[in-house]
Structures are given as C-alpha cells and as structure tokens.
C-alpha cells in the first residue's frame, strides 16, 4: 500500500492505490480511534473525511460557549497511558478549541493524519456480492474499494435548518450552531437572535448575552438544564487524577452512562423530603449530569421523577428574577431527563440581564424572516445576526445521507424505513462487512460517547481480525439476532421514562421520521458485558463465511 502522504492540515491526501482492507468514514473521535486500532492490527486503512480538519462535531460546532458536558478527564481516550499522562486539560469542562486541539494532538501523536483523505465526502457505497467488498463513491477521489466499511459519521452531524419563509431575504448573517464559521463572529453592538434552546442554544446564550447589544432567544420548548459546576484544573487536581487514572477509567466503564457516577441505590421515594432535599442539593452542586443519578429510579419511576422535577423547578425559580419569565423557562409536559438536559454555565441567570429577552414561539410562532429580523405572530424582532441552534437529524441523518446499498441492491434507507434495525447497534443484516460506530441500537448518546467509542473500536477490530485469521470474507448479522436485539432495545426503553418525551431519542426532531426509541438504554456496563459474551461465544449473532 503506498500513499502520497502530503498530510498537512488543509491539504487533500491523495492515495495512489484505491483499494483498502478498511475504509472508515469520518475523522471524528470514533474514526480516529478506529483507525488507530485497525492499523495496529496490520490492516490497510483509510479514513475519508469531508472536511479539511479532524474532530467531527468539535470541528463544526465552533459557536461561542461550546464546551463538553462531560468532564475533560473522562471525555478523552484511555487506550494510551502516555497520552493520558501527558495531556494537560485546563478546565473541568473543556471548551471546543481545547477539545479540537486534543483531537489534533491524538492524530499527530499516533501519526494518523497520513491515513486520512481530507476534503473527501462519501456519496454512496455498494456491496459487491462476488468480491465481498464495498465500492465507495466519493466526491473528490472517484471510487474507492474496501473489504470492510465503517461508518464513523457521528450522530449529530446532519444539521437541521428550519425552513422559515423569507430567510434568503435577511440582510444580516445567518449561521447554524453545527456549521459555525471558523472566524469568531463579532457580536459587539449587534442585535442577535438565537432560535432553539437545546444544549447548543443554552450554552451560547450567556456568552452572547455578555457581548451583544441585544439578544432575543426564540424558545419553542423549554428544556431542563443542570449547572455545570465548572472549575479550572489546578496542578494538584491534575496530579491526583493522573495518579489514579486507571481506577477512574474503570469506574467510568462500570458506571451506567460511562461518566463515572454510580447511581444511588435508593429510590427517591425511600427518603424523607428533608433527606431527599439534601441529596438533591449535593448532586446539583457538583455532579452536572450525575444529578440524574442522585437516585437510581429518577428515569425509571414517574413519582420519583416528580420529586426531581419539583427540585429543579425550584432551582430555576431561584435563578430567574421575573416570575412570568420563570414560568416560560420552566419545562412542562415531560419527565426530567427524558429529553437530554443541557448542562449550563449561567443560562437562566442570563435572562435577568436587561439586554436579553425570551421570545415564546410556542405561544406566538415565527411567521417569517424579513430583511431586518424575525416576525412572529406577536410582532417583529429587529436583528443583525441569527443563529439557528435548531439541532440535527440525530442518529440516522448522517448514516442515511449517502446511498448505501447492500445485498440485492437493498438500500439502507429502505431497510430502516420503519426505524433502525441492527444487531448491537453495530451491523445490519443484508449489509455484510458494514459497521456503524456508536450509532442507534447502542448506548451512543445516552453515554459518555468516548467510552462507547473505545468499546466499539475494539469490538469491530477484533471481529474483523478474527474473520481474517479464519480466512473468512464476509461478516454478516444474522437476521434472528437482529430481530432479537431490536426487541431487546425496545424492551429496555419501555422500562424507562425516556419514551414519554417528544425527544430526538424517539425521532421526534424531524417530521416524518419513524417514532422509535433509538439508543440502547441498558447502560454501558451491561452493554459491554453483552459485547464480551458475543466475542466469547464465537461471535454469536454474526454469520462469518
Ligand atoms: P437540540 O437539542 O435538538 O435542540 C434544538 C432546539 O431547536 C430545540 O429547542 C428545538 O425546539 C429547537 N428547534 C428545532 N427546530 C426548530 C424550528 N423549526 N423552529 C423553532 N425551534 C426549533 O439541538 P442542540 O441544542 O444542537 O443539541 C443536540 C445535542 O448535541 C445535545 O442534546 C447533545 O447531545 C449534543 N450537544 C452536546 C454539547 C456538549 O457536550 N456540550 C453541546 C451541544 C450539543 P423543540 O424542542 O420544540 O423541537
């Protein structure tokens, strides 16, 4: 295998061969991690990446205030002790530029860049039955061939842009949080409108509020947000984590969500209101996402959940001065945590500023964008900059964007027309030698995704190398195993409160999308045990031939 590795950032890396053991689509964290494993296993591997930069979501979501909701030490790779000992995180929740620097550092440290084909978008892929291989069509490098194809395309990659009449006539700038310009915008003296109050809108609101002349936040659905309890990392903290990093990793891997928080074994209903208040208070003041594990049944039992709702609503009320405004900012109609909560750095308090207003577009919907601003049924809001923080076509958007055809020309879109059907979230029947990283049917966005990425990268690498060592050419999910897994994913979801919210977990973010619960809610520890069992039972559920 020879490649022309003119691998500087921003240059296209043209292969002189076009046939590889494995092609990975996407140079985000899951693509980089997979490349590292597979290449170390002796396979010829290329990543194709549509951008000229690595990092995936952390490359594209450069909006002000973008930072990780998972603590930096946990949102990082554990496969190399040298890497984790040498990299120095500066903050408990790293900001986007620092995470992007980390992705680049990993890339350089393990010489991954030379095997990344930048500025190359996958348009489609066809499985060739005779050769048991995939032909991958790209926009810049023609057709590439591979024995195995790994989709590491991310769950939050296909941005969702609202179709608002008149948007093209707007005289100012419009940007999407998920495709944010590389050069920071200057908000000084500007009237800014943010549409959307999910994690992205919640993160950018306090930052833009401090810079802009005026900020209008257009909210359709209020969501819950937990304070981040952010802090800089001192040298002493850093040394402490690094001295016990292995234990920390182990704890994360064995916690339900990969975040390291072990749920309180008690039900919220077991404690008196006074004790419960104390437990909630402690969790609220330190744990970020871990607040949802203050009791094990907050996401399982609606009465327990109601106690959390009551607590969180009181916290919101303490932060927002105006009671009418507070009412609008307070979520209702779904359990706490059933839509992915945001983790914030002063979101609610931002609305106490005189230059910030909340526009309730559920009550008075947006009618149009004009040359000068946004018009709702309540009137016009003059603006210079509009930011769509309107989210993504989550889980399946980026997987189904290219035309992927398996056996007998069956497209993945056809196969998944009633919702994703797969085994372990990793492979799908009729699409041999095709693997998905951290997609639907796996813990994915219900987990610290880096933990899930490491699990998938190791599993898929072992599966491919095992088949190779047996001289086998195709790895295909068995249909019965797939049907059982889909049923299992549904059953686990039905044990939780997640299906009670109109969330992207249920496909509610895109009109017409099948309404099925997509991630695996059985937790990363249970899921890893399942992966281990499959591996230890000669890859039960996969037909290797
Ligand atoms: P999101 O959670 O899907 O939120 C989108 C927001 O836009 C919602 O408030 C939605 O309202 C609103 N919206 C969508 N279409 C609209 C329309 N046509 N008109 C008006 N409002 C509209 O998207 P996100 O905030 O980008 O976050 C997505 C996910 O990315 C997060 O849940 C999280 O997993 C991840 N994320 C992580 C971090 C981090 O780790 N720090 C940061 C940002 C994002 P409705 O609810 O009414 O649809």
CA-based gyration radius? 23 Å
Helix content class: 25-40%
**What is the CATH T-level topology of the largest domain?**
FAD/NAD(P)-binding domain
The largest sheet, given as strand count, sense and whether it forms a barrel, is: 8 strands, mixed
Q: CATH H-level name of the largest domain... which superfamily? A: FAD/NAD(P)-binding domain
End-to-end distance: 26 Å
Strand fraction? 15-25%
CATH architecture call of the largest domain: 3-Layer(bba) Sandwich
- Compute the number of structural domains: 2
Mean pLDDT: 95
Quick rundown:
The chain is α/β, with parallel strands linked by helices and 545 residues long. The protein is 31% helix and 16% strand.
What tags apply to this protein structure?
20 strands, globular, 545 residues, five-stranded parallel β-sheet, alpha/beta, single chain, binds NADP nicotinamide-adenine-dinucleotide phosphate, eight-stranded mixed β-sheet, 16 helices, FAD/NAD(P)-binding domain
Question: Describe it for me?
Answer:
With 545 residues, the chain is of the alpha/beta class. The model is unreliable at 1-13 (pLDDT under 50). It contains 16 helices and 20 strands. It has 2 domains: 6-158 and 394-444 and 474-522, FAD/NAD(P)-binding domain; 195-232 and 261-388, no CATH class. Strands 1, 2, 3, 4, 5, 6, 17 and 18 form an 8-stranded mixed beta sheet that branches. The protein has a 5-stranded parallel beta sheet with strand order 7-16-8-9-12. The chain binds NADP nicotinamide-adenine-dinucleotide phosphate (NAP). NADP nicotinamide-adenine-dinucleotide phosphate (NAP) binds at residues 67-69, 156, 162, 177, 195-201, 203, 220-221, 340, 361, 389-392, 445, 504, 509.
